[in-house]
Write a structure and sequence with these properties.
By secondary structure, the chain is of the alpha/beta class. The protein is 41% helix and 14% strand. GO terms for molecular function: phosphoglycerate mutase activity.
Length: 201
């Protein structure tokens, strides 16, 4: 049974500063580096055939540290389809300051609703429309060949994949949170069907 492991990158500088990050390329914090290494410890002893990550440094850095810690040397495929949701005009803004300016309810809608994007940005629906065709074509393409796959990406690109794998309804996905640096291990049929899930906390 092929295995798919999803990992959200470790804490980034703007996660720490409570800022909307999106496609802005910010590095990991010391905490994020530790989370990436801990993810590697949790995955030590597992084997994979290929790894996927986004075009953003924080995901690539997490994957590199994870591999180093776990003793892995995988071929790595980077693709923009796995990038974080683009937060448009909110990128770089402090989340608390933005809530004070626009109201908690409006910012909550921009952050957590499935279909409402922030100004000039992407909703989760938009992110899924970008991420899932690549997931179906490339990542599940490997799964169908019986390969074990590691994906290190972002909160929203990974949530889109979780939504697809676990058949989460649109009205429930806003409540799904993915912790930084915590591997989600999925056992899949070669047709991509979900057979089991384990969270390595």
């Amino acid at each position: 049974m092929p295995t798919l492991v999803l990992v959200r990158h470790g804490q980034s500088l703007w996660n720490l500063e409570n800022r909307f990050t999106g496609w802005v390329d910010v590095p990991l914090t010391e905490t994020g580096i530790a989370e990436a290494r801990l993810a590697g410890e949790r995955l030590r002893g597992r084997s994979f055939d290929v790894a996927y990550t986004s075009r953003l440094t924080r995901a690539q850095q997490t994957l590199s540290l994870l591999q180093e810690t776990a003793g892995l040397q995988l071929p790595v495929i980077q693709d923009e389809a796995l990038n974080e949701r683009h937060y448009g005009d909110l990128q770089g803004l402090n989340k608390a300051d933005t809530a004070a300016r626009y109201g908690d309810e409006q910012v909550h809608i921009w952050r957590r609703s499935f279909a409402t994007p922030p100004p000039n940005g992407e909703s989760l629906k938009d992110t899924a429309a970008r991420t899932l065709p690549f997931f179906e074509r490339a990542i599940l393409g490997d799964i169908r060949q019986g390969k074990d796959v590691l994906v290190v990406a972002h909160g929203n690109s990974n949530r889109a994949i979780v939504m697809r794998l676990e058949d989460v309804p649109e009205d429930e996905i806003p409540g799904v949170e993915l912790a930084t640096g915590v591997p989600l291990v999925y056992g899949l049929g070669e047709d991509g069907s979900l057979q089991g899930k384990t969270i390595l906390e």
